[in-house]
Amino acid sequence: MSFSLGGIAKTALNQAQEPVKTYNFRVILHPDLGGSGGILGAMKKIAGGIGASFALGSFSSVEGVGWKTEVHTVREGGVNECEHRLPGRTTCNELVFSKGLTLLDPMWDWYHSTISGSVSRMNGTIFLMTDYHTPTGGISAVPSTGIPTAAWHFFHAFPTALEGARMDASQSAIAIQHLTVSIDRIEKVGLPVGGLGALAADAVAGTALSIAGSLL
C-alpha cells in the first residue's frame, strides 16, 4: 500500500477545518502557587481536599469561555457623517462549571473557602478532545483518550456563586450544581505546535495533586 504525501496533507487540512464537537472535553484544576500563601497555602488546599477533588474534575458542562473589548467612540469636529471607534480594555467572562451532585461535594468545598474568608485561587485548563483516539499499543490497562484539539488556560480563579441542585419530584434527572468562577484572565493555547507541551505539563500537575490528595 502506498501513501501520497499530498493526500495525507489534504486529509490533515480537512480534519483541521472540521468543526469540533463539544461533548468530549477535560478540565484540569490545580492550586495557584503564585497566589497568597505560596507553597504552604497550596499544601493546605490539598490537605483540605480541594486539590484532590478538583485535580481532574468531571464536569457535565463549562460555559463562559470568551472575551469582550470595550469600544470608545470619538467624534471629530466638523465631521458629522462618521465616528471614529477605538478599542479599549479587553475583559474575560466568568466561567460556569456544572457538575452532578455527589456525596463528595468539591464544589461546596471550594466555594466554602470564599464564604469563610480564606479564598482559594486555582489555575486550570479547559480542553476539547477530538473523536480520534490516542493509540494504546495493545495495552488494555492504558486508557485511550481523545487528541487535544483546542485548549484554554485560565488563571487566579475563585468561586463567586454556587447554585444548588434543582429539586423536582416529577423528574428523574441527575441533580446538577452550577459553580460560577471569577478569573483574572484566560488564554487560548496554540495547538498542536506549542500547546501540547503546556497541556501535558498541566495534566501531570493535576494528576500529581490528585494522587497526593488521596494519600493525605
TrEMBL record:
List each coiled-coil range: none
Enumerate the InterPro entries for this protein: CHP02241 (IPR011747), Phage_T4_Gp19 (IPR010667)
Which GO molecular-function terms appear in the entry?
structural molecule activity
Mind telling me what this protein is named? Answer: Phage tail protein
The root-end lineage is: Bacteria, Pseudomonadati, Pseudomonadota, Betaproteobacteria, Burkholderiales
